[in-house]
Amino acid sequence: MRNYIIKRILLAIVTIFVVMTLTFFIMHAIPGTPFRTGNDTISEESLAVLMTRYGLDQPLYKQYLKYVGNILRGDFGVSTSNGYRSVTEIILTAFPISADLGIRALIFGTIAGILLGIEASLHRGKAVDHLSTVIAIIGISVPSFVLGTVLQTVLGLGLSGWVKTVFHTDYQLFPIARWQSFRYTLIPSFVLGMGTVASLARLMRTSMLDVIDQDYIKTAKSKGISGWAIIWKHEVRNALMPVVTVLGRMIGGVVTGSYIIESQFAIPGLGKYLVNSITARDYTMTMGLTVFYSIFIVASMLLVDLLYCVIDPRVRLAK
Amino acid sequence: MEATTISGKTAEFQKDFTRVTRDIEASQKIHRESMTYLQGVVRTLKRNKVAVCSLVFILFLILVAVFGPILFPDYQKTDLLHTLQAPSKEHLLGTDELGRDVLTRLIRGTRISLFIGFAAETINLIIGVLYGGIAGFIGGKVDNAMMRVIDVLMSIPQTLVMILMLTVLKRGMGTLILSLTVTGWIGLARLVRGQILAMRENEYVIAARVLGAGKREILLNHLIPNAIGPIIVNYTMSIPGAIGAEAGMSYLGLGISVPEASWGNMLQFGASQFPASLWLFFAPAILFALSMLAFNLLGDGLRDALDPKMRK
Amino acid sequence: MIRAKNLRQGILQKGLALALTTVLALGALAGCGTYENAEGSSASGGQISNQSNQSSGSGAAGGEVITNSGDKVVKIAISADPEFTFDAIGDSLMVTNGLLREGLTRYGDGVLVDGLAESYEHNEDYTKWTFHLRESGWSNGEPVTADDWVYAIGAMLDGTAQLSYADFLYEIKNAREVYTGKKDVSELGVIAQDEKTLVFELAYPVTYFPYLITHPMHFGYDREFTQKVGVENIGTEAEYSISNGPFYVDSWEHDNLLVFKKNPYYWNKDNIAIDQVNVYVIPNQATQVNLFLNGELDVVDFAYQRLSAIENAGFTAQTYNNGRTAYLNYNEANAFLKNKYVRQAISAAIDRDAIVNGVLHVGSVADGLIPVGLAGDGKKTFREIVGSNLPYVYDVAKAKELLQKGLDELGLSSPSDISFTILATNTDEFIAVTGAIQQLLQDNLGIKVDVETTDSSALRTRRNAYEYDVLLQSWGADWDDATNFLGGYERQADANPALFINADFNAKYHDATYSTDLTERIRLLGDAEAILLEEEGITPLYYTGQYYAVSKRLEGVLRRAVVPYLDLYFAVVK
Question: Which domains does chain C have, with CATH numbers?
Answer without folding.
Answer: 35-97+244-320+567-573 (3.40.190.10), 105-229 (3.90.76.10), 321-546 (3.10.105.10)
